[in-house]
Design goal:
about 25% helix, 4 strands, single chain, 4 helices, 4-stranded antiparallel β-sheet, alpha+beta, about 130 residues, globular
């Protein structure tokens, strides 16, 4: 593991320039975005390896749960609600990230007692850009 190991969504090493370009592409970066009651579940590609250990697979995806009010807050307002995660999970592969997003949505739905959809959920740009 180097000082800064960077990977695309398929786990291929990329350079810092390519990471910057892909990071600016919302369609590439977003894996899932689901609002459930007062919460928002967001899953994204990070690109930078967050495994913090040598060996093993790079950890390049993350799911976080926020309050929707903080998620939608106007960040230019100095008194905005802070965006602090309620829960976070990280993954090595795109498939793990997509599955993790669905799992996290189920957990949040159970927490707020929201009915679980019987049809597979459509997520914002689920895995797009690959």
């Amino acid at each position: 593991m180097g000082i800064m190991d960077i990977y695309d969504k398929d786990g291929r090493r990329i350079d810092f320039e390519e990471w910057g370009r892909l990071s600016d592409d919302d369609d590439y970066r977003k894996i899932g975005l689901t609002e459930i009651g007062p919460y928002t579940v967001s899953t994204v590609w990070l690109g930078l390896d967050h495994s913090f250990m040598s060996g093993g697979s790079p950890v390049i995806f993350e799911t976080m749960v926020f309050t929707t009010s903080a998620w939608e807050a106007d960040r230019s307002d100095p008194d905005h609600e802070l965006l602090m995660e309620i829960d976070a999970r990280r993954y090595c592969t795109l498939q793990e990230a997509m599955d993790g997003h669905v799992e996290q949505c189920l957990i949040v739905r159970a927490t707020v007692n929201e009915e679980i959809p019987t049809e597979p959920e459509k997520h914002t740009n689920e895995g797009g850009g690959t």
